[in-house]
Every structure is written in structure tokens, then in C-alpha cells.
Amino acid sequence: MGRLALTRVLLLIPVLLGVSIFIFLLMRMIPGDPAIIIAGENATPEMLKEIRDEFDLDEPLIIQYITFMRNLFSGKVVSIKTRRPVFEELFPRFLNTLQLTLFSMAIAVPLGMILGVLAAAYRNSFLDNFVMVLSLLGVSMPVFWLGIILILIFAVQLGLLPSGGKEGFESLVLPSITIAFALTSMIARMTRAMMIETLSTEFIRTAKAYGLPRRKVIYKYALKNVMIPIVTVIGLQFGYLLGGAVLTESVFGWPGIGRYIVDGIFARDYSVVQTGIMFLSAVFVLVNLGIDILYMFLDPKIRRGVGKS
To answer: How far apart are alpha carbons 2 and 111 in whole angstroms?
Structure first.
């Protein structure tokens, strides 16, 4: 397990290096001069030159890249737009996104697994059809549309919850439900499909033939065997959500990292976009490492395979 963790951490270096080069070049390909966007169309040539000199925008690309990497590792990356250290702006927004992600997952994971197991256990019943229709709506419905509908009902019409912003626990409810609805649908569909496949296997039929209670067969034996693909889906979605649910954050005015990076793209704030995407890439790789380690606890065969290697 220690070797696996060390290998993944070492692989983080070339991954981040490749991401840094790719996003650096991609940002330079986007039309628009950061100096003009920040200073305005009526800025004097002297003002534009001052901004370009301050952030080395007139230097060759290789010099700009080296300067950025040096500032990144020293923690001195400064936003072109706000002239504040990027990490001071990024971390609070990441914590906001992490809070939203954890709350959404706390709703979606148990609910999605319960619905998926029940749908598989009572296949072709009314409950199964209801879960499948609900999950189809969840994966098909645009997130921004659902968010607007929830705002209209619970904020505008009923006045029960705030329509946006970050003003305590109540502000979490609507954006979390918006994210959790699609995530619940995805987990329910995956759980149902894997459970149906597992319930038709020989070892489950053998367990039933020995007279084991149906509930024990489903929850102790079948569900345990479908946990690895379910954990994979959950882990990947967790990593994606940490990247910022941009549409949800925009609809609800949630000050998360996804919205922060998108605002940086519109402002041509190279420092914000490059630092933010590299940070999220590191987080995503670490989340995948956590998933791999969790596999070993779920499946002894994987533990033995890692131990032999």
C-alpha cells in the first residue's frame, strides 16, 4: 500500500508538469489582451505598458512560463486582475466548493444506493419503474434549469430558503439538492445494474438454495460484491465536483472555485486560471489515490496482488 501511494505521488509530478504546459499555452491562444481587459478600452499606452511589465506579458513565452512556475512553487503567484496573491483567493473558494460537495454527496450516496438496491431487489415492479423514471429525469434534466425551478419554488414563492449567496447552512440546501439530484440518479442506475448482474450469479443462487434470508443475501453478499464499481463512480464524481460545479455555483451565486476559475478565464487572468487548474489536477489525482487505497480494503484479492508485486 505504501508503494502504491508513493508511486501515485511521484506520478503527480509529470501529470502536473503536462497540465501546466497545456493550460499555459491554451490561455495564450485565447483572444484578448489581459492588460486591455483590466485597464479598459480607454487606457493609455503607458498604463498598458505598466501592466504588461508588471506581469511579464511582453516577455517570450518560455520566460513567462518559467516565471510562473517559480512564483507558483514559492507561493507568490499574483492575480493580474486583483493584484492579490492567488492562493489567498483560491483556498477559501475551494473550501466553499468542498463544503458544497460533501453536503451533496452526503445526500446522494446513501439515497442513490438505497434506491438502486431496492430497484434491483424488486425488479420490474412499480418501485423499480419509479426509480428508473426518476433516475432518467435526474441524468437528463439540465442542472441550471433545476436550480432555477428550486429558487422559484422555495425562495420566491414559499420564502423558505435563500435564493443564493453564502449566508450560513440554509444557503447550502438548494445548491446541494440541485447537485445531489443528478448524482443520486447516476448512483441508483449503476447500483441497480450491478446488483441485477450479481443477483444472477452462481454464488448468490447457492446462498439462496441454502435457505439464507433474502435480506441477508442482498445486503451482506450481493451488495458487498458491487461496491468497487460503485465506489469508482462515487470517487470520480467527487473529484469532478471538487473541480467546481460551475453552473450550480453560477445559478446560486455560490463563491466556489469553479466560478472563480471561469471568472479568471473571462478576465484573461492567466495566474488565476493556471494556478487553479493545477491545484484541481493535484486534488483529482489524490482523490484517485484514495479510491485505489479504498479498493484494497473492499477486495482482499487486490490487497494480495499489491503485496505480491
So the answer is: 33
- Burial pattern 114-150, b for ≥16 Cβ within 10 A else e, equals ebbbbbbbeeeeeebeebbeebeebeeeebeebbeeb
What confidence score (pLDDT) does residue 106 get? 92
Q: Reply yes or no on whether the pLDDT at 173 is more than 80.
A: yes
CA distance 36 to 268: 10
- Pairwise CA distance, residues 129 & 123, whole Å: 8
Nearest partner of 186 among 243, 108, 101, 126, judged by Cα: 108
- Residue corresponding to grid cell 414563492: 157
Condensed to tens digits (0 to 9), the pLDDT of residues 249-265 reads 888 888 888 888 888 88
Record the cell numbers describing residue 179, joined without a space.
447537485
Q: Report d(CA 143, CA 153) in Å as an integer.
A: 16
Among 114, 121, 112, 111, residue whose Cα is nearest residue 196: 121
DSSP string, 220-253: IIIHHHTHHHHHHHHHHHHHHHHT--HHHHHHTT
Enter the pTM of the model. Answer: 0.81
Q: Phi first, then psi: give them for residue 42, nearest 5 degrees.
A: -95, 15
Burial group, residue 202, by CB count within 10 angstroms (0-12, 13-18, 19+): exposed
In 3D space, the residue among 298, 260, 254 whose CA is nearest the CA of residue 276 turns out to be: 260
